[in-house]
Amino acid sequence: MEVSWPQAMNLFKTGLCLPLFIVTLLATGAGRSFLEIGAPAIGILLVSGIIGMSLGDTAYFSALTRIGARRTMLIQCLAPLFAALLSAALGEPLPGAIAASGVLLVLLGLILVLRERPVGVIHPSRARSGILFAMTAALCQALGIVLTKKGLAHATVLQASTIRIAGGVMGILLLELLHGQLTATVRHALRPPSLGRIVPAALMGSFLGFFLFQEAVRHTEPAVAAALTGTSPLFVAPLSVLFLGEMMRAGGWIGTILAVAGVVVAMLG
Fold first, then answer.
1. CB-based contacts of 169: which residues, under 8 Å, 6+ apart?
2. Which residues contact 222 (CB under 8 A, 6 or more apart)?
3. Ramachandran assignment for 170, one of left (phi > 0), alpha (psi -120 to 50 degrees), beta (any other)
4. Which residues lie below 8 Å from residue 19, measured CB to CB, with a gap of 6+?
5. How far is the C-alpha of 176 from the C-alpha of 107, rounded, in Å?
6. What is the CB-side half-sphere exposure of residue 173 using CA atoms within 13 A?
7. What are the pLDDT digits (tens) for 214-226?
8. What pLDDT is recorded for position 1?
9. 176-185 confidence digits (pLDDT tens)
């Protein structure tokens, strides 16, 4: 049976980081107060992990394989809008005018950066499915952030990160079980390609990056957090110029400057 690379890759990176979060939780003594979180908050955080990581990340990887990184990240710019709408539907306050202006600047900057290169031609059927997967990923990310915000009212950032990662792993395993390819996917995840490159990336992104992401969600509105977590292209573009010798036109530099200014404005708001 053919195994999907997105599911295997998602299982690898989340499964790699779950033991690290558990060890960190126990080493810092935060595990002792784990039961004080309460079942409702634990349930919310588990569901947020299932939606944001197992469903959202798998949809994101599926979009990458169909429409490429730049198209996928461009559609991901819808996540702050989804987060704002979901927050409003749940009765949460929306970002103020200053913070909302910062979010718009970030999104404008991202669009300029992501449009820097020609993105090539894609078969219509793959384009449609890729766009659908990317929009699903953006919606799942937004819903995961909104739910995490609620769960963080009763848990520390480290506790919330551990619970969400656990939810993500359980969600991926459940999806693969329902698809009848659990064993094959687990076997594939244990033998990822380019292990020397994937492990450091997973540790930085899924461990340290994920922890810092929970901190951002705790201290900002969901729409602002969604916008800030989508700024990775702003770092990739200048680093590619410095270390890989790639060229970036004026639009890319303007977009980077606008997005950085947007982050500052959002934080001030």
1. 11, 14, 15, 18, 54
2. 83, 84, 86, 87, 92, 142, 145, 146, 149
3. alpha
4. none
5. 34
6. 10
7. 888 888 888 778 8
8. 44
9. 888 777 777 7
